[in-house]
Structures are given as C-alpha cells and as structure tokens.
Amino acid sequence: MDSLNPDHPPLTVTPAHEAPRVWKFWGTAIWGIVIFAAMFVGQISAMVLLVVQRGLPMDLASLQLVGGEPQALALSVIMGLPATFAAVWLAIRIKKASFADYLALHWPSWKQLLFGAVGLVLIVVAWETMSRSLGREATPGFMTDLLKTGRDKGAAFFLLFAFSVAAPMSEEVLARGFLYRGWSASFLRVPGAIILSSLLWTVVHLQYDLYFLAEVFSIGLWFGYMRYRSNSLWLTIVLHALNNLTAVVLTMWLGS
After folding, report:
1. Helix%, strand%, coil% for the chain, nearest 5
2. In the chain, is it the N or the C terminus that has fewer CB atoms within a 10 Å radius of its CB?
3. pLDDT(113) > 80
4. Which tens digits make up the pLDDT trace of 33-58?
5. Tally of CB atoms within 10 A around 145
C-alpha cells in the first residue's frame, strides 16, 4: 500500500474546518493596534535617541523640543518603517502565511498604474479647485512651514525620503496591506474593508483639520479601490509615494 511506502505517501486533504491562514475581523483589529503601537514606538525611539545624544533631560519638554526640528521629524518617520514591517511580519508569520501573498506584494501592470494615477490626479485637482474657491490653503500651513524650514536647514532630501518613501510604505502596509487583507475576508467584505481601513488611515492624520481629513479619506477610498482592482499593494504604495513626492516638491521649491 502507498500508505506504507515512504516514497509514495498518501494524499492528504486539508479539512474544511481548518483555520484559514488569514486574520479575520477581530484578529486583524487587534493586530492592527499592535502594529500601530510598534510604528509609534519606532518613531518615538528616534526622538529618545536624539535626546540622549544631546545630553538633554529625558522628559516631555525635551522630546517636544527635539520633535519640532525637521531632521528629527524625518528620522522619526523613517524609524517607524522597520518597526511596522517587523510587527506585520510577526502577525503573518503566526498564521504561517506567505508575507508577499498576504500583503499582495505583486507588481501592477502599466495600465493599472496609469489608471490609478489618473484617478488620483483628478481627486487632487478637484480638492485643489475647491480649496481655491473657498479661499483655503491647498496645503496645511504647518506642513508648509515644516518643509520650507527643512529646506532652509539642509534637510530637504531627508524630509523628501521620509515623506515620499518611508511614510507611504509604512501606512500602506498597515492600511491597504494588513487591515484590508483581513477585513475583506471577514463579514465586512471588500466595500467594508475599504471604508474602514480608509477611516483608520484618516485618523492617523489627525494633525489636519476636518477639511483636509475629508480629502485624505477620499484619497484613501481611491487607494482601497485600486488595491481591490489590481490586487497589488505595490500599486497603492507607488500612488501614495507619487502623491507625497509631488506635494513635498511643490511646497519646498515651487510654493510661494
């Protein structure tokens, strides 16, 4: 019999009741909190390191003082990336799933990239037009001050990397990667996963006012749709990076 022959083991069938290799609603929610906490710890660790290097007292005032500097803020954003990746990797590893497949780290086609970019441009232009008609700034004032100060202090490319590479990767891996993957496989399905992950991504940007938060949410919905349409997280990472890169460059060097 084949069952007794080590060269021809019997075929095995995965039981239907076996746990799937994906976190569902609550598992994704709990791990999402853990991942966000890891990102926060990574960012704060950069501030702590700078405070120690400068011999400042380890208190809130010192952290705020250091955190207000463009170079320190850029380093903080960058340090959040490996912490985020480590927490996401652990969550996926526990499920014994493929990291690339779980997060849909597949390259999109040029047509998908073009379609996503055109849609993003239309959304941004619509909000830009609305901002001008309402007499509002197209970019939050504090971000304009931060980026221009960073440019003047020689931290332009450091900030450019932080906001155009590190931030998009961290936020997309969490929102359109891990959260969307688990929630789309739960009772929320794809529409609910897109909406909820976009809401939480918007909450990460609470430094903005309600108007800019509405813009962030609308962009998040588009990113979520493109994540579903293309089954590619790389697509949303690239779109997010292009959006941030354009905003940073225009604000630093072309803005009034």
Report:
1. 75, 0, 25
2. C
3. yes
4. 999 999 999 999 999 998 988 888 88
5. 12
153, 249 in Cβ contact below 8 A?
Answer: no
What is the arithmetic mean of pLDDT over 162-174? 96
Q: Which of 165, 164, 125 is nearest to 248 (CA)?
A: 164
Could you tell me if 46 and 114 are in contact, meaning their C-beta atoms sit under 8 angstroms apart?
Answer: no
**Alpha-carbon distance 203 to 217, whole Å?**
9
User: In this structure, what token pair is assigned to residue 204?
Assistant: 């990460």
Count of positions (residues) in the chain: 256
Q: pLDDT per residue over 195-213, tens digit each? A: 999 999 999 988 888 999 9
Q: How far is CA 127 from CA 136, 137, 145, 206, in A?
A: 10, 11, 21, 18
Distance, first Cα to last Cα, the chain? 81
* Phi/psi-derived region of residue 154, left when phi > 0, alpha when psi is between -120 and 50, beta in every other case: left
